[in-house]
Amino acid sequence: MDVARRWAATLADTKGVSLPQEQLEELLLGVAQDAVRTEPDHEPARERFSKLYSASPIGIALADTDGKIVEANTALGKLLGCRPSALRGRHIPDLGSADHDVTRLRNGLSQLMAHGRQTQQERLLLDHSEEGTLWVDVTLADLPGDRPGSTYPVLMVADANEIHLLQEQLLHQNVHDALTGLPNSAAFGNTLETALAGAGGEQVALVYLDVDGFKVINDGLGAGVGDQVLRGVATKLKAVFTGRHNGSVARLSGDGFAVLLRGELTSLQVIALVEQALEELVEPIYLGGHGIGVSASAGIVVRPATDGGPEDLLRAAEIALHRAKEAGKAQWMLFDPELDARDRGRYQLGAVIAGALENGEFSLVYQPTVKLANPDQLAAVNAGLRWTHPEKGELDSDEFYPLAQITGMTIPLGRWLLAESLAATARWRNRFGEAAPDVCVRLPKRLAIDPDLVLLVKEQLDRHSLPAQALRLCTDRESVLDPRGEVLDSFAVLADLGAQLVLTISGSADLELIPQHSLPVRHVILSGAVIDALADGEDEADVRHLCQLVSRAKELKLRIGAEGVRSHEQAERLRRYGVLAARGSFIADSATGDEVDELIERHAH
């Protein structure tokens, strides 16, 4: 009775909650072992074990030393969809559904009988008589037999089907995109690593695709339509790539997708598939009465699987995609290692612009603009930037300004250029008085559209006690028409202050921006083909074009100059047709520091 009372108390003291499977297993084994060991009156203990075994919520099968089931409780029969008696005579391993389930049960039974080693809880599939298969958690343990030293195996089974399916669902959600059902970026990364690790001598191809102008669809037709478009894109990409060259498609983020191909493939084969995909995407899908087709840009990289790791492959595909978009979108671009090597050098240069500015590696470089009627007279001095790089030497602005635009350093460089140019102008005025030339600063686009341009200019003029008339600010068509900026308002205020505004033009369309937008421009500078055309002669059509520009500039009461003039003969032709001033190598190469003071002094005398 002591044994009965002790186990009854243990089973009853659950504090109102269901006991975990492991705890129930321990309790049941304890009861069974006590029932066997209790002497001399062990029949009541066996009876208590029998009742507990029958009422247990865990499926239990008792087996002989060979693993053949001799008894199964009601819970196990219910779990496997059969009568408990139908399980008698079956070997425990035979309950497994697949070969690996059978093997795991057989190995567990062997370890138990040979070494008395109880199996840790394992999740595997058992056969269900009606529903096919069932996920369960199983434990194999042993019970002492009637004879000293003898043991018998016992199988304990708990239903884990719902838990397993829920875990599978959560796992699927973790590695799949909820909108399209495609693998997400995390899953794609794992797929890529696995593919490269086991690809051996195979070729791999990675394709990055990005929907062009998706924001227009999303904002114009609504996020709901945008989501349906993305589902359509996913469906079309799967149709093109899945099943070919072990193709797998994933949605990385937003409107970005990736495709991985591997096996015996060539660049031409991959390009053909990409072109097919781009054609499919253009075909409209009809949503809410709208026929919506999309274009996409694609970056492609094809290489042996052993050439670099996942990071190298991902970076190469991303670079190729950026180049496709920069080239005009709606097209593909194949990764070019040689071009990439050159770009790496450029990007490394762009990355250190901020430090170079702080370390004093930038300086001003000047080019004089002279009056063509009297080249000894300076009309203005144009100020620009030069970078003295410790390794690459002297770098002109066209070599680093595009990089500054990418790295966000355009405004700091432009501010420094303006401040230093006006400081130099103040020095010239103190030294040369009325003979000091105006300074002309070409505004980088990002600075021209900056809303603080007027404040910056006024601060620098006031700091150096300069009249605004001493400063010429030059811009171009691209800056004037940029929708992000406030160029027109800024120029109007600067003109009111007295600054002289200059527009670089290459043809009639540029010139007509001045009346169209009421630009307070006083000077225009001819640049590019219209000037180059008169470098070696006077073609009739080129001369007519130049004369039309000069005539229209006079109508608008503008002073007209030219840049990029290479010879005195070219300068003379321009003078004859009405160009008033020019700069270029015909008069002088660039000057820096003290050189510009000497240049101004020569022209002043």
Which helices and strands occur, and which strands form pairs?
Elements: H1 2-12, H2 21-37, H3 43-55, E1 59-63, E2 69-72, H4 74-80, H5 99-115, E3 122-128, E4 132-144, E5 151-159, H6 161-175, H7 185-198, E6 203-211, H8 214-221, H9 223-241, E7 248-253, E8 256-263, H10 267-282, E9 285-287, E10 290-292, E11 296-304, H11 310-326, E12 332-334, H12 337-351, H13 353-358, E13 362-371, E14 374-389, E15 393-396, H14 397-407, H15 410-432, E16 438-442, H16 445-448, H17 453-463, E17 471-476, H18 477-480, H19 487-497, E18 500-505, H20 508-511, H21 513-516, E19 523-526, H22 529-532, H23 540-555, E20 559-563, H24 568-576, E21 581-583, H25 594-604
Parallel strand pairs: 11-12, 14-16, 16-17, 17-18, 18-19, 19-20, 20-21
Antiparallel strand pairs: 1-2, 1-5, 3-4, 4-5, 6-8, 6-11, 7-8, 9-10, 13-14, 13-21, 14-15
Helix pairs in contact: 1-2, 2-3, 8-9, 9-10, 12-14, 15-17
Number of helices, counting only DSSP H or I runs of 4 residues or more: 25
Give the strand tally.
21
Strand order of the largest sheet: 13-14-16-17-18-19-20-21
Classification by helices and strands:
alpha/beta
Specify the CATH class of the largest domain. Alpha Beta
Name the features.
single chain; 605 residues; alpha/beta; Beta-Lactamase; Alpha-Beta Plaits; TIM Barrel; 3 domains; five-stranded antiparallel β-sheet; 23% strand
Outline the structure in words.
It comes from Amycolatopsis thailandensis. With 605 residues, the protein is an alpha/beta fold. It folds into three domains: 1-165, PAS domain (Beta-Lactamase, 2-Layer Sandwich); 176-335, Alpha-Beta Plaits (2-Layer Sandwich), CATH 3.30.70; 348-604, TIM Barrel. The strands form four sheets. Strands 13-14-16-17-18-19-20-21 form an eight-stranded mixed β-barrel, surrounded by five helices. Strand 3 (122-128) and strand 4 form a beta hairpin. Helix 2 (21-37) runs antiparallel to helix 3 (43-55), helix 12 packs across helix 14 (397-407) and helix 15 packs parallel to helix 17 (453-463). The termini are far apart.
